[in-house]
Design a protein that fits this description.
Number of domains: 2
Distance between the termini: 41 Å
Order of helices and strands: EEEHHEEHHE
Helix content: 25-40%
Low-confidence stretches: none
Largest sheet: 3 strands, antiparallel
Structural class: alpha+beta
């Protein structure tokens, strides 16, 4: 059976001067997140954007996948700090998400740097969000093992 999550946005007005409000999420973990066109292409000014939400989804997904892969490899992590930077630019005159750069710093006892980086690369390619955007968005990961 498929897992389904929901979010709803109410948009008022035109693209440039209008605004939206993200709410009614399945988890109830957040609500009333404002967004505007300017929050996507200029300064965020306390508002979110689809690109920021994609970055949050990708960082979350990767951290879970990487933690799982490390544990399966016999080296469960003490901690992982993950950042995702999603970039959008004009492609053929249309705004397009072009890349998601993951950065991870981790404390993983008993693991060497090369194995840490290899497992990070596998998680980058294997997490569900990566799999959803692969082929359309350039994916990268920079992995640093802390001692």
């Amino acid at each position: 059976m498929a897992t389904v999550r929901r979010a709803a946005v109410k948009w008022t007005g035109n693209l440039v001067s209008g605004s939206g409000l993200l709410s009614d999420v399945t988890s109830g973990a957040f609500s009333a997140l404002p967004m505007t066109w300017a929050s996507r292409t200029e300064a965020a000014d306390g508002r979110t954007s689809p690109e920021e939400l994609l970055a949050a989804a990708h960082a979350s997904c990767f951290s879970m996948a990487f933690s799982s892969d490390l544990t399966k490899a016999g080296s469960p992590p003490e901690s992982l700090e993950v950042t995702a930077e999603v970039s959008a630019e004009r492609v053929d005159g249309k705004w397009t998400v072009v890349s998601s750069k993951l950065t991870v710093r981790g404390r993983v006892p008993g693991l060497d740097e090369d194995r840490f980086r290899a497992l990070a690369d596998g998680a980058k390619n294997g997490c569900p969000i990566s799999r959803a955007i692969q082929g359309n968005v350039a994916l990268s990961v920079e992995a640093t093992l802390e001692r």
